[in-house]
Amino acid sequence: MDFIYLQTFCEVAKWGNFTRAAEALGYAQSSVTTQIQKLEEQYGVVLFERAGRTMQPTQAGEVLLPYARQILALQAEAKTQLSEQQTGTLTIGTIETLAAFYLPPILQMFRERYPRITLALHAGNEASIVRAVKEGECDLGLILDRRSADPELACLPLRKEAFAVIVRPDSPYSQLSEITVQDLAHAHFILTEEGCTYRAFLLRTLRQSHIPHHIVCGFGSLEAIKQCVMCGLGIAFLPCVTVQQEVAQGKLQAIPFIHESHLYTQVMYLQSKWQSQAFQCLLDLMAPDVQP
Question: Of 71, 173, 235, 280, whose CB is crowded by the most CB atoms within 10 A?
Fold first, then answer.
């Protein structure tokens, strides 16, 4: 028996009206009528009769109603139990920036829905993450890069990232409301490690504009970069989201960098990948952040 028919039957009994039941279910009234007729054919009885301006269950309908509600309740319980029993591991390849400042609330919401599924994070740079997704080492890749056009991958841009030049509050740059590439002539940079897309974007921009500069050091740790800036070793170039706390505390200043970056936080997976219910849930939890 189709559970949808029983759900429709319960809604008609609740509202006493085919039209209101159709509105509640999001169906056309003709669909509700057809489903009730098919249910009546299955049982060989009439389930509703007109009483004034409403439709009331017949004696047979009154007998069926508690069973229908019980069947639907058991179905919902079974779906919940099966969902909770799902086990296994989902592996997410990501960069440190997103692991620290994007993923935690999403992982928490997923954990509440699938407590028996292990989430494993695979750290790397964008190139290694794309490779891991293609080779099946990661179920999902979460990267910060230009939009991917790889035909093997399904790619969903989640948000466009804003970047800033990060300085100490007493830095000569701190008097600027915004920074152009020309303002960075002879700057001393503390950068992320090689392979990082936004490091590559900055250096490419400086090179194209023939801006002389110095790289003091490079780190794989965002915290190390921020601490070095606080100590006066140089300035950094980071996504704004990574320094919100330090800026609010007055430890650092984030000055907008005036240049179109076209770098997006995006999730990717193999086009051919089978999507489990848990996998789809993880994608859906990221979906609210999608920007046009």
Answer: 235
Instruction: Identify whether the C-beta of residue 171 lies closer than 8 Å to the C-beta of residue 235.
Output: yes
Residue 81 pLDDT greater than 70, yes or no = no
Which pLDDT value is given to residue 85? Answer: 61
Q: What's the rounded Cα separation, in Å, for the pair 91 and 109?
A: 16
pLDDT digits (tens, 9 = 90+) for 13-24: 999 999 999 999
pLDDT-based confidence at 164, cuts 50/70/90?
Answer: very high
Please give the model's pTM, rounded to 2 decimal places: 0.65
Q: Does domain 163-256 have CATH number 3.40.30.20?
A: no
What DSSP string describes 192-242?
EPTT-HHHHHHHHHHHHTT--EEEEEEES-HHHHHHHHHTTS-BEEEEGGG
Same topology, domains 88-160+264-289 and 163-256? Answer is yes
Q: Is the pLDDT of residue 73 over 60?
A: yes
3-85: CATH, from 2.170.120.12, 3.30.1490.20, 3.30.1640.10, 1.10.10.10: 1.10.10.10
State the chain's mean pLDDT as an integer.
90
Domain 88-160+264-289 CATH class label: alpha beta
Domains of the chain, residue spans: 3-85, 88-160+264-289, 163-256
Show the DSSP H helices in the chain as ranges.
3-15, 18-25, 29-43, 59-85, 96-101, 103-113, 126-134, 197-208, 222-230, 244-248, 277-286
